[in-house]
Amino acid sequence: MTPLSPNASEPGVRRATITDVARLAGVGIKTVSRVLNDEPNVASATAERVRQAMAQLRWEPDLRARNLRRSDGRTHTIGLLVGSVTNPFAAQVNRAIEDAAAVRGSAVLTVSLDEDPEREIAAVAALTRRRVDGIALMPIAPSQAHLQAAMDHGLAVVCVDREPRGIAVDAVRSDSRTAATVATRHLLRRGHRRVGLLLDREDLWTAQQRRLGFLDALHAAGIDPTDCPILPGLRDAESSSMAAARLMRSDAPPTALFCGKNLITFGTVRALQHLGLQHRVALVGFDDFEFADLLDPGVTVVAQRPSQIGRLAAERLFARIERSDSRAPEAIDVPTDLIERGSGEIPPPAP
Amino acid sequence: MTPLSPNASEPGVRRATITDVARLAGVGIKTVSRVLNDEPNVASATAERVRQAMAQLRWEPDLRARNLRRSDGRTHTIGLLVGSVTNPFAAQVNRAIEDAAAVRGSAVLTVSLDEDPEREIAAVAALTRRRVDGIALMPIAPSQAHLQAAMDHGLAVVCVDREPRGIAVDAVRSDSRTAATVATRHLLRRGHRRVGLLLDREDLWTAQQRRLGFLDALHAAGIDPTDCPILPGLRDAESSSMAAARLMRSDAPPTALFCGKNLITFGTVRALQHLGLQHRVALVGFDDFEFADLLDPGVTVVAQRPSQIGRLAAERLFARIERSDSRAPEAIDVPTDLIERGSGEIPPPAP
DNA sequence: AGCCGGGATGACACCGTTGTCGCCGAATGC
DNA sequence: GCATTCGGCGACAACGGTGTCATCCCGGCT
């Protein structure tokens, strides 16, 4: 085996530059640049010499320097801001966007915001300094107006999962309101009259929409909303689990639950199992997840399509970046799919 | 509400540069630079004028230009190469590294390789052109020697989850061999004599180690390895599920299974449930996962500590980047935790 | 033979920042 | 009172590439 030079043996070799390549090939730097960029008007013999010099020196052009001067001004880098890369929904969106970016030769800078508005603002500033071509954002701050200055300088923006506020940009998300109506109606059709809704922070667009959809369904069925408790402000599985347990131990607990996002479903499923109620209380979750089908009972969900959302968002973003789309910003609804697995089909107890 | 200027209204304003700030503040550009970098020898009144000019123009310095000239040569950007950001293990590692990078003002370029060696090489080349300061890599290519040239130019590298080949760099990973031994011994102690091992591609270091650990345990218990089938080459949940089903339908199927990574566990759990064997065949998985405790039976696992692995990897990486650590490259073992939940404690059927 | 067009090429400015260095003026030392 | 320091500041080169433009050369056409 060949001897290995250790990690710490740095500066080592000075990195080759275009000047070194030019000198070795016996040409001017501009000719090297021409070869690198496949520009015309280079004799094939010259081009070959240049390519050999590049290979011999293992030269890789410096994209910072290149972008700095280039007329299109693009860095071929985009930013992705999500709640957390560990959230399965965000991870799927992330992957879809990464794939779309890779096809176009762009790299992705991913940032987890932990649903903190200040981190959204800080992250955007940091990405702006890096001159990313575009940003795909799951908005969390009360307003996205802080992006306007960067947009005036040509930054493209697309919002994912939630509607933006204070700026006019494309948005790609599930039709949360309709999805919530469908899920709630599904429970009501089984005869439930006391349905509980567990929700994320209500300053989020998604939570608002899902609440509206929930109420739409109650209204259509002529149900008194005051019989249907709404528990908002649930940020993670932990707090959701505690909230669900408290709710089920209350006087007149609901006979069915609708969970407004994946982490809430996780917590609620846990709570019901611990209380031994998983076969007595109906449950529909928002967002599909691994093993939803193998739990007992299987968890009925309104599944989002995160890959599709990510793919569409990336397409909009790159269309804006390449200025190939100058239509007015638009909101794109991605459909959801109700998947029946058992938990959502539990009937209310006989009166 | 204020009117919103649409996304497509680009070039719009020319972006302010340090020259604009200098002119507005009535100073030289170098003074602006000094204020920006908190360098000494600027009168406080002057600094204040400069800061006002910065704010007024909403100027954000261009990090590309800055890094290009700076003497330390750092871009404050690192690369992270994983199998896929949708894999929960990778996602946790990703998050830990992102957090460590954020503290140090570095951004993370994440790339999913889909376990494709060629993409590893291509991704490293792309990151090299971007002049990242370091790369955290879950190695997939047969050799990582392709990183040597970049390392000679100062690139820092740390390997995650798997051992590197062909280069000398730090590595942070679980002690797979010991973990596999512990898991296998756990099954053997319950009386199993025919234990099946389901494995990832055997060219991967982790799969090799887990196989060795498995055999170690058999050997120590005096068990004939030929009674214990090994199914390698399982890349995803799908193929694992099919392989597990085929195995259980064979003559003399094993009475216990050990799954060599998270996706294999997912597939195998599915297969056992579909065959109705989940309470008759013991199973231990590698890697913990959401709902492992709520399945029936609960899934016993050897849990890795992905956050810790990511954190330690990032610490090594930044130590190398900052040249604050010049020790020889080192392999760091992160312990695993056997978590008993039921599936691993199922005894073999009475003879 | 002289003119012209265009392919091949390099000199040089430039992108937006930081590093080097020199200049100026005020404070300090003797 | 004069040399010496030093704080404050800007001119200019440099980072590693690309854009612009001038130049050279050669073949084809009058």
TrEMBL record, chains A, B:
Keyword presence, Acetylation: no
Gene Ontology MF annotations: DNA-binding transcription factor activity; transcription cis-regulatory region binding
Alphabetical keyword list: DNA-binding, Transcription, Transcription regulation
Region of interest (Disordered), residue spans: 325-351
Start and end residues of each HTH lacI-type domain: 16-70
InterPro entries named among the record's database cross-references: HTH_LacI, Lambda_DNA-bd_dom_sf, Peripla_BP/Lac1_sug-bd_dom, Peripla_BP_I
Record Gene3D superfamilies: 3.40.50.2300, lambda repressor-like DNA-binding domains
Domain of life: Bacteria
Pfam families: LacI, Peripla_BP_1
Name by which UniProt lists this protein: LacI family transcriptional regulator
Source organism per UniProt: Arthrobacter terricola
Lineage of the species this protein comes from: Bacteria, Bacillati, Actinomycetota, Actinomycetes, Micrococcales
